[in-house]
Amino acid sequence: MEVGRRSAMEYSNTKVGKPLKMKVKFVDDEKDVVEASDALPLPLYITNAVFFALFFSVVYFLLTSWREKIRTNTPLHIINLSEIVAILAFVASFIYLLGFFGIDFVQSLILQPSNDIWAADDDEEEIIIKEDARKVPCGQALDFSITKMAPIASPEPAPKVAPKVFEEKAMIETPPPTEEDEGIIKAVVAGTIPSYSLETKLGDCKRAASIRREALQRVTGKSLEGLPLEGFDYESILGQCCEMPVGYITIPVGIAGPLMLNGREFSVPMATTEGCLVASTNRGCKAINLSGGASSVLLKDGMTRAPVVRFNSAKRAAELKFFMEDPENYETISMVFNKSSRFGRLQTVKCAVAGKNLYMRFTCSTGDAMGMNMVSKGVQNVLDFLQNDFPDMDVIGISGNYCSDKKPAAVNWIEGRGKSVVCEAVIKGDIVSKVLKTNVAALVELNMLKNLTGSAIAGALGGFNAHASNIVSAVYLATGQDPAQNIESSHCITMMEAINDGKDLHVSVTMPSIEVGTVGGGTQLASQSACLNLLGVKGANREAPGTNARQLASVVAGSVLAGELSLMSAIAAGQLVKSHMKYNRSNKDVTAVASA
């Protein structure tokens, strides 16, 4: 084919390397490549045009002839010489066209995807999303255990066997690229094959990640040796979690607890690289458990989305505001909104006018999903409906930041977003002194001066706490939540009060915008799914939709309560620096190292 020849010349000029086993032929020498199409008496495109014209001409002739026979009641099996010639021409042209165009099409349906699809149009790619079919968490099958060494009987140095065994098992070397992969890598480096299209064209996500990784190292000249590649299911993130992967990050997961919350015990997974965080939260869980546990209450449950629309005048913007907030119109608007999902149910619409612009903050329930996509689809349905009665409405954006997502905002602090939860516990005085190593009066005073007064002086927005964001981030990473939503989810006010004549401590955290889900996004990944399973909230609750997500929000609030209690106690007792030096710093004698 002429196209094949031009492609061959282009690839050979870019010095891609050895053939990729594609239809495109890579010319490594100056000899001409003989193709089957060279035997045709005419150029290939003219031959194709002739057979196309012949095929449709004889089809038209035969149909016209048969229609005339039907009209005159002539039997169809009686044919003349011209019809015989037309039938033969039809069969010949059909065989040619089938042989030319049909074989590759049939093979593409039966055989595995081959590298000839590199010639396909990149603009017509379709991402193939495959469900995570693994039965065990990612990397569970890998053995990272360290071989136990026999007791050392003498002061003589033992042979370094254990470290070697650990390195052999933990460090999985990536095999060198095959001859075919090497050609693709060179094509990616040369820019003739887009890196983003590797998964679609190869049909193998792991292989695509390996090729992209090697190409990146060659382009940048930087090594990715410490970034793991093996041991991860790249099929599970295709089209939903991460694009153009080259590896994955390993974050240690620690367990705090058990945390006694609403009469149940929870072992809380926390993914973090900050030393002392899990240990501190664990101490807070211990103090709560020994005092009878904590209790939580869900105040609100609704995700928000706020589009911005514009009119020619402020009067028209106000008219739509009154229309949206009129109780008589709620049923109609709710019916239009709820068509988008069987779980998304409209709760409220709150509007704000800024000149000619109108911001409409929709709030809806979202089941066990975090729900951003769900509420966005419902909002789009309402906007389309409103165009009928307000044709002069100009939709500027589906999100106008009145939502407000992934940004500190007073509207979330006041109105709430996602799950609004308050969690409390009464810590007995002897537990405060024995476990937390401080006293009730010191904690109450520190909380007032630090979390309340100090935050007010700093102009904090929802940050009237010690370190709620630490615990929220760690739990979010472990359970597959959106880490960026840690911003509004960490809105928290910590309250401490002496009760029972100053003997005991009442502590609470109020968190108005915890945004979590147990389905969708990163929750379907094996490692994160395992952590959700540990908490008993994996997937959707089919009996009572939304129960798992609400339970997870309560666990987040309870964990924050434990973390706040422990950190405030450490500060009150003057142990903060000491504990961080123990758990978050090296124990090496710096002066001895310097003198050496």
Number of strands: 11
Number of helices: 20
Helix content: 40-55%
Portion in beta strands: 5-15%
Q: Classify the secondary structure makeup into a structural class.
A: alpha+beta
Give the biggest sheet: 9 strands, mixed
The termini sit apart by: 74 Å
Overall morphology: elongated
Question: Which features characterize this protein?
Answer:
disordered N terminus; 11 strands; 596 residues; nine-stranded mixed β-sheet; alpha+beta; two-stranded antiparallel sheet; 44% helix
Textual characterization of the structure:
By secondary structure, this protein is of the alpha+beta class. The protein has helices at residues 2-13, 44-71, 81-110, 162-170, 179-190, 198-202, 205-220, 277-290, 314-325, 327-338, 372-389, 410-415, 429-434, 440-457, 468-479, 486-489, 526-535, 547-572, 576-583, 590-595, and strands at 253-261, 264-271, 295-305, 308-310, 345-354, 357-365, 394-397, 418-427, 463-464, 492-499, 504-514.
